[in-house]
Amino acid sequence: MATPAVIVFDVNETLSDMAPLASRFADIGAPRHLARLWFAQLLRDGFALAATGENVGFADIGTEMLREVLQDVPLDRGIEDAVSHVMEGIGELGVHPDVPGGIQTLDSAGFRLVTLSNGAAQVAQTLFARAGIGENFERLLSVEQAPAWKPARSAYEHAARQCGVSAEEMMLVAVHPWDIHGAARAGLSTAWINRGDGRWPRYFAAPDITAGSVEELANMLTGHQDPGADEARR
Question: Which InterPro entries match (predicted)?
């Protein structure tokens, strides 16, 4: 695998820690596990729209999906207030503990760092400013300006055009196997962040690198660790 000219990071769950959103659901009287169900269904509908050639904003889908998920839940407030409380929580999330050190290591090594998120670029900007890593990224890309959400090929091609490189010169870093698969099919090299010792779905194209954290990935790419040392995670 050639050294990438540009490293492209997914944002939601890869860099941002979305676990605190479960507390937002608890705040409104909803079960905590609905946070994961809501996010999964949000992604499902975003993917469906991408498959039909449409692009609807993350917040628009997320808001409408919350209304659907919460409609039969005995909440402690009105549905619209409940939806607002959960959505506001997205803007208050932090990054995973391994992210700042890993990002700073890659930046110091001279890698060009960008994001490609299915969410809004403004959300990433706020997240990174709070974490002190905003200056480490060359640009914050979002599918807001792309033809479709990831994992559509056109999303990754949009990122390559914006960075002035070919897809083959880019590496996508993500926790989501579907994102890794989409990037691989578009020609990017890939790195899977497997924080939870999960198993790789065999129906997806395998990642080029598997790491347990962004910090571990940074050590691999800067020569401090063998990229093959984590093969057992797959």
Answer: 2-HAD, HAD-like_sf, HAD-SF_hydro_IA, HAD_sf, PGP-like_dom2, S-2-haloacid_dehalogenase
Superfamily of domain 21-90: Putative phosphatase; domain 2 (1.10.150.240)
Q: What is the pLDDT of residues 89-142, one digit of tens each?
A: 999 999 999 999 999 999 999 999 999 999 999 999 999 999 999 999 999 999
Q: What does each C-alpha distance from 79 to 10, 36, 66, 75, 170 come to in angstroms?
A: 31, 19, 9, 7, 43
pTM: 0.92
Whether 6-17+95-233 shares its CATH topology with 21-90 is answered no
Task: Decide: helix, strand or coil at residue 16.
Answer: strand
User: CB under 8 Å to 146, separation ≥6 — which residues?
Assistant: 55, 154, 155, 158, 159
Instruction: Domain 6-17+95-233: state its class.
Output: alpha beta
134-193 pLDDT, tens per residue? 999 999 999 999 999 999 999 999 999 999 999 999 999 999 999 999 999 999 999 999
Distance CA 6, CA 10 (A): 13
